[in-house]
User: Which sequence fits this backbone?
């Protein structure tokens, strides 16, 4: 072995030892990661390894899912775009062909966390004190019942959540399952419920979890032989709020753990509230017993937002800022912004900012332009000319998700499962081919994906089409659905 090779090996070992004290990095996982780095050196220059892979920290490995911590989202986009195939190849050699990747971005977003050696992971629920939303799992203070503007379509869901707020733990409403599409307002209601308990039931031990956080902590506990402590830490709760349970799809061990926790909590009278993007009986790749459990309580849906509700939201938003719009603009926005409240809110924020910063009122053409730039997929006019999009990003995403049997929000998310990644790349390819949207605009819809990652996906599918007749046929079928 040359002197240079010895130096490189020492650098890899030093880096691994420096991160071995981090939660979720046992010796075995560190050894496997060092093997991966050694394999990568066969594929890539040493300078690349040093720059793009030594800063990566392995966090946990379970259910064939390897969790890696990266310094920033930009770092992740660049690494995945430029070295993704080489990384996947080397991981398969060490962890097996079925290995799937999941990523955590370091808390600072700019640099990897400093090595630390806490006796107990500080992110696990507290079993000694009283878990509180404020200190343990904070809700978003912007979301309250007062500022959730309900209409006829979501009145039942609102009243069900309010009933639970005032009467937590009642058998007929436990668990309470709220389902609806992206931007329907289900997470708003869940956070509003959490804020209500914090304000009105301060002594109740309450926690709000996103399903992704649960998976990360569950995997960490398995990896460190602490699953009993992890499960027990939930048992002191009196209210447990779980957001986006559908993201547990195809994670069998995580689902089993969640089923046990939820069942035990309901048995002891803890109020459980869960959100998902579709009714429990339509959740794909889910444990039948978990589906059965979710169906035992009350299931409420939040249908797409209707015109009257959108108009109410628009008027309220501008009144809050002491601004007014003419009726033609209000009608246009109510008609064209669609049912996704995320898009609706983004457009309203942009319009308020434009009025405030420029110090002048907006014309209808100004508003049409803003809508066309921010969400042409909603079917709005594409600009002052008034021509309409033949096909939008939402249509393409929905058709691709349906064709491949992947939930829409999972396809739009950051899952690295092979089936999901293939569907996502095909959707991105079609968006680029059929909508004329910029790489940045397309990336915005796919969890703010960096434009270089969008280009990588587009080129990858384009090259595959040259030699893959099956893929070509699948894309033609998706186009026919549009």
Assistant:
């Amino acid at each position: 072995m040359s002197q240079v090779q010895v130096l490189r090996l020492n650098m890899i070992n030093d880096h691994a030892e420096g991160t071995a004290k981090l939660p979720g990095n046992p010796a075995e996982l560190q050894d496997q990661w060092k093997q991966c780095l050694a394999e990568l050196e066969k594929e890539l220059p040493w300078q690349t390894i040093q720059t793009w892979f030594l800063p990566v920290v392995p966090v946990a490995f379970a259910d064939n899912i390897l969790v890696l911590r990266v310094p920033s989202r930009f770092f992740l986009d660049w690494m995945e775009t430029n070295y993704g195939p080489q990384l996947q190849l080397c991981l398969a050699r060490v962890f097996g062909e079925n290995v799937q990747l999941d990523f955590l971005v370091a808390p600072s977003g700019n640099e990897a966390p400093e090595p630390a050696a806490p006796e107990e992971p500080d992110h696990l629920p507290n079993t000694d004190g009283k878990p509180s939303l404020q200190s343990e799992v904070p809700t978003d203070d912007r979301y309250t019942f007062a500022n959730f503007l309900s209409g006829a379509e979501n009145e039942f869901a609102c009243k069900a959540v309010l009933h639970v707020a005032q009467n937590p733990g009642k058998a007929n409403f436990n668990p309470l399952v709220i389902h609806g599409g992206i931007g329907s307002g289900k997470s708003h209601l869940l956070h509003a419920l959490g804020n209500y308990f914090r304000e009105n039931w301060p002594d109740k031990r309450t926690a709000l979890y996103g399903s992704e956080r649960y998976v990360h902590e569950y995997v960490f506990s398995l990896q460190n032989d602490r699953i009993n402590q992890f499960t027990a830490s939930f048992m002191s709760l009196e209210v447990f709020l779980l957001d986006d349970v559908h993201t547990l799809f195809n994670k069998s061990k995580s689902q089993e753990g969640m089923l046990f926790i939820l069942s035990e909590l309901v048995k002891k009278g803890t109020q459980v509230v869960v959100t998902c993007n579709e009714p429990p009986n339509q959740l794909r790749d889910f444990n039948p017993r978990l589906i059965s459990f979710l169906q035992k309580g009350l299931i409420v849906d939040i249908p797409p937002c209707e015109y009257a509700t959108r108009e109410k939201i628009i008027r309220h938003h501008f009144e809050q800022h002491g601004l007014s719009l003419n009726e033609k603009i209000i009608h246009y926005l109510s008609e064209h912004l669609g049912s996704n409240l995320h898009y609706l809110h983004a457009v309203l924020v942009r319009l308020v900012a434009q009025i405030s910063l420029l110090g002048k009122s907006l014309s209808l053409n100004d508003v049409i332009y803003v809508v066309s730039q921010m969400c042409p997929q909603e079917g709005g006019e594409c600009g002052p000319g008034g021509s309409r999009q033949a096909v939008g990003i939402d249509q393409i995403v929905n058709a691709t998700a349906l064709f491949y049997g992947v939930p829409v929000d999972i396809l739009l998310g950051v899952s690295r499962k092979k089936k999901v990644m293939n569907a996502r790349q095909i959707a991105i390819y079609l968006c680029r081919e059929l909508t004329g949207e910029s790489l940045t605009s397309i990336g915005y819809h796919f969890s703010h994906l960096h434009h270089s990652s969008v280009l990588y996906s587009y080129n990858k599918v384009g090259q595959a089409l040259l030699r893959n007749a099956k893929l070509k046929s699948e894309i033609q079928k998706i186009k026919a659905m549009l």
Observations:
- The beta strands are 57-62, 65-70, 100-105, 176-180, 206-210, 239-243, 271-276, 298-302.
- The domain at 307-378 is CATH 1.10.8.60 (Helicase, Ruva Protein; domain 3).
- Residues 115 and 332 are 54 Å apart (CA to CA).
